[in-house]
Design a protein that fits this description.
Elements: H1 2-23, H2 37-50, H3 55-67, H4 72-87, H5 91-104, H6 111-123, H7 134-149, H8 156-183, H9 187-200, H10 207-221, H11 224-237, H12 242-252, H13 265-274
Helix pairs in contact: 2-3, 2-4, 3-4, 4-5, 4-6, 5-6, 6-7, 7-8, 8-9, 9-10, 10-11, 10-12, 11-12, 11-13
Length: 279
């Protein structure tokens, strides 16, 4: 019986050995130090293509850098390392790798992509509106750098789109807080938030609602001149918006019109609108 077990064990070992020979050696069986930079880099590419988790690819690309720091393959590996880290959602590591590439190879063709990856690592961390907006500001700044430094690159167009979306995200945050204050009857605090949207985020999709909420808040405070002026701006620029209809009903229901009245910060905005310098 013992002899049978031994033969079975040997046969199993031979089968495993044969399968290993057909499938190639496992990464740990061949010291990476014995491979060329290109060979290690190719292993990283293969790992990235075949494994949904990029950890193994990151290891190969970082090893190219470690073993062959001044080679062309090290340069390629660094940008691939940044890409793989971003794919793994290791955003801080991706930023560090992308920044290192920019520091070492600022004039290389892939510098534009490194800058874009750096910006994207901030952008992809922008979460729901209720979170702290520090990352949104970082994303805006980084996307702006892509647009300004590499305007002719293939990444500039995507950076412009993401810049606009991040900008809209900041406006959404102001609107969320403003609506909260408005609901609580804290009208002055609400007005301050909606004013930020109208003055600083006027190109976003939130401007019509901000103007309507200003109408609501000013009417609640009995400041009819400001309410009418906000309505006039809304009517001048956003007549197709449902918020225009809501403001129109509010104002006309009180015998008021949608026209500029008095002197306020909204009067200045209205003047700019008429002159075509706003929006």
């Amino acid at each position: 019986m013992a002899g049978v077990k031994s033969r079975a064990f040997i046969l199993a070992a031979l089968v495993i050995a044969g399968l290993s020979g057909c499938g190639g050696s496992k990464p740990d069986q061949v010291p990476l130090e014995s491979l060329t930079a290109e060979q290690i880099y190719k292993k990283g590419e293969l790992a990235l293509e075949s494994n949904p988790k990029p950890a193994e690819a990151i290891r190969y690309f970082s090893e190219v850098e470690r073993l062959y720091p001044y080679s062309e393959w090290a340069k390629r590996s660094l940008i691939m390392q940044a890409f793989s880290q971003h794919k793994a959602k290791a955003y801080e590591e991706a930023r560090a790798s992308a920044q290192r590439y920019l520091d070492l190879y600022p004039a290389e063709e892939d510098a534009a992509y490194a800058q874009y990856l750096l910006a994207l690592s901030y952008y992809d961390q922008i979460d729901e509106v209720g979170r702290d907006q520090g990352l949104t500001f970082q994303a805006l700044q980084s996307m702006r750098e892509v647009i300004e430094k590499y305007p002719d690159s293939e990444y500039a167009r995507s950076a412009i789109l993401k810049f606009d979306l991040a900008f809209d995200h900041l406006a959404a945050k102001e609107m969320e807080i403003g609506r909260y204050y408005l609901k609580k009857g804290q009208y002055t605090a609400a007005i301050n938030r909606f004013r930020v949207v109208v003055q600083d985020f006027q190109t976003t999709s939130h401007t019509p609602e901000a103007l309507h909420r200003l109408v609501e808040a000013y009417l609640a405070l009995g400041l009819t001149d400001e309410a009418q002026t906000a309505g006039a701006i809304l009517g001048h620029n956003f007549q197709s918006s449902p918020f225009y209809d809501d403001s129109h009903r509010l104002l006309t229901g009180r015998g008021l019109s949608m026209e500029a009245k008095g002197q306020s910060w909204l009067s200045n905005v209205y003047a700019q609108v008429i002159q075509g310098k706003w929006l």
